[in-house]
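Data deposition worksheet. Section B asks for the primary sequence of the deposited chain exactly as it was used as input, without tags or linkers unless they were present during the calculation. Section C holds the resulting structure in token form. Section D is free text for depositor observations; keep each observation to a single sentence. Incomplete worksheets are returned to the depositor.
Section A, Depositor: J.P.
Section B:
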Amino acid sequence: MDRFAELLNRLSTCAERNGKLKLLSSYFREAPDPDRGLALAVLTDNLPVSFPMRRVLADLIPRRADPVLYKLSRDYVGDTAETVALIWKPEPRVRWNDLSLNAILTHFQSAKPKDMADILETALDNLDANGRFALLKFLGGALRVGVSARLAKTALAQAYGVDVGIIEEVWHALTPPYAALFTWLEGAGPKPDAGEAPFYRPVMLAHAIEDNDWQNFAPHEIAAEWKWDGIRVQIASTGTEAKLFSRQGDDISATFPEIIQAFAKTRGVLDGELLVRRDGAIQPFNQLQQRLNRKTVTAKMRAQYPAHVRLYDILYDDKTDVRALTFDARRQRLENWFTREQPAYADLSSLVPVESFEALRALWSTTRHEGIEGLMLKRRASPYLAGRPKGHWFKWKRAPLTMDCVLIYAQRGAGRRASLHSDFTFGCWKGAELVPVGKAYFGFTDAELKQLDKFIRENTVERFGPVRVVKPELVLEVAFDAVNASNRHKSGVAMRFPRIHRIRWDKPAQEADKLETLIGLIDKN
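Section C:
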């Protein structure tokens, strides 16, 4: 536990990506089995068990801490594990810091639900503050140490001198604590094989196009497609089984059973965009959101928000890996595959003519009116490469919309932002009233964040725990991709991807935009 606690402590205070990679690589090389595998499982959100931490801690906190002090501290710190670790009053008997992660996990896995609180109390008593923090993070997840699943896999790849793409390819053939993975990486066993099971392959990503990119290619070298406002997915199928993955490799099959059923008898690995399509028309993203992250999907929900996959690439044609082929060759393979398989709830992404870049720009300028997010530009000679390789694929998103809104509420952030108000709710004028239209927590510099925090503290008129109501005086220029009608919000609208574009210290709040102006943009999405 000491080693893992030290890792989390150092990760939480290390801001540089390379520094985090170095810390993780050292841990994976030096920590014993199965602890390093369990740590990898936690870092990638794959620990095979879950614990009711919120409920158990609610019972325990009154025993060892002042509940009022806990609430005040939790509101300020912004993290439950850190708060409990610091205010806990221990009664130590045995040093749990010396136990392995595996030994600690075994204690909790073997516990009966009625005994969970007592075991956690014993564990917290016998750990120091760092150990308590690490234990609660280990059991509860949500580490918040700035490490994504991809970064953890990259660190593992660097630790053993292999390509992270290979780690990704074998990942879905593995289960925690990944003994077979570490055995192979250390040269003591074979490379793990997923066999016939459908599994995820790393996707190819695009760069946002910049002005100087145009000079590096000619129109005939580029294939263009519409960029649809859905979520990127990959479908892997073996002829008897299919799985649907997000672009990060999360299995989302259970949420879209109709897609799984449609592709179950096909063979291949396909790349595409998950959308809601009704009466032949692609629906706004907020309708797809009604289906995302659902544990169960009713027949009514399937009928109301019918899922659809628009395919635009193929990685495996049956069992043949075609990623090394050019885009043009893969496109022909994809068209042949679709003609042969004809899966329901799917179609092919159409290619947009590229006669000249001037003509392409004219098409791009129509995307907002047509409800399309932009254009994708892909080199015809490009192979399918994992990650975000330079010079191959480009995304040309439509220009964002902007509105001048008034700051209404501010909330403290979490982690490194726990002492600063960094989550901002803003509104537009509906007559003489400001109604909330969105919330954003990025788009500003660190220096601007300190200025905003200072303004909020000096202009607070009411408090609700970590949330402050501020004087309606500060105008924020908000950029967003689209606006949709929403019956979940008092204003009747919901912004898509709002972010702070500019702080308008110079503009009076009375001159901010009206709600009717925002509602008028709905038809322009």
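Section D:
Residues 401-524 form a domain with the OB fold (Dihydrolipoamide Acetyltransferase, E2P) fold (CATH 2.40.50.140).
The longest helix spans residues 327-341.
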